[in-house]
Specification:
Elements (H helix, E strand, L loop, with lengths): L4 E4 L5 H9 L4 E5 L10 H11 L4 E6 L4 H11 L3 E4 L5 H11 L3 E7 L2 H6 L9 E6 L29 E3 L8 H8 L3 E4 L4 E3 L2 E2 L1 H13 L1
Parallel strand pairs: 1-2, 1-8, 2-3, 3-4, 4-5, 5-6, 6-7
Antiparallel strand pairs: 9-10
Helix pairs in contact: 1-7, 2-3
Enzyme class: isomerase
Pfam families: PRAI
EC number: 5.3.1.24
Length: about 210
């Protein structure tokens, strides 16, 4: 297995962005979802995009967003890809891809084997399936809560392309997760924070080093 791609999600400050770039992460995630402590508005997204330039690719995270919200986020963040993290259907994913002409990632909440099976409905429609831990029904956020799921549920994904692993990944466990799953991409948010929304540059560096060394 080659080195995995690395995404640091929920970037909202220049300091966190710089840490992701210098640590050679492949993607940063910009969250366009106001209930999230990691939400960035158009002004903040534009400033981060200007600072990043071509040094790192930017993925915008949207949760059941309308087209105008997505269009504003894509323009402000100069996004390279869109990540859909809500209840979007395969048909909706296809519509977003056709409308905006960008790669579309679909987050798949997982708690059981059946969730992994259902993800096949999106394969061939989404450019990347991001297997993430399913949050409780009454949770305010669809992700970024530090939860993880049973990685053995992804055994059948080994050797396949077009997917990634998220949910509770941290500098302490990402190497083990990669050895178990052989994920082509790993995505962290709360695992590199000292508090919700507060990214720690040292944790970002440690995460990237652990993933790259796995």
């Amino acid at each position: 297995m080659g080195a995995p791609l690395i995404k640091i999600c929920g970037i909202a400050t220049a300091e966190a962005l710089d840490a992701a770039i210098t640590s050679q992460a492949d993607f940063v995630g910009l969250v366009f979802f106001p209930p999230s402590p990691r939400h960035v508005d158009g002004h903040a997204a534009a400033a981060l995009a200007a600072r990043a330039g071509s040094r790192i690719r930017r993925v915008g995270l949207f949760v059941d967003a309308d087209d105008s919200t997505m269009a504003e986020g894509i323009a402000a963040g100069r996004l390279d890809a869109v990540q859909l993290h809500g209840e979007e259907t395969p048909a909706h994913v296809a519509q977003v891809k056709a409308r905006f002409g960008l790669p579309v990632w679909k987050a798949i909440p997982v708690s059981t084997a059946a969730d992994v099976v259902r993800a096949e409905d999106y394969r061939g429609v989404a450019d990347l399936l991001l297997f993430d831990a399913k949050t409780p029904k009454d949770a305010a956020l669809p992700g970024g809560m530090g939860l993880r799921f049973d990685w053995s549920l992804l055994a059948a994904q080994k050797g396949r392309s077009g997917w990634g692993l998220a949910g509770g990944l941290s500098p302490a466990n990402v190497a083990g997760a990669l050895h178990q799953t052989a994920a082509p991409l790993v995505d962290t948010s709360s695992g590199v924070e000292t508090a919700p929304g507060n990214k720690d540059p040292d944790l970002i560096r440690a995460f990237c080093e652990a993933a790259q060394g796995a």
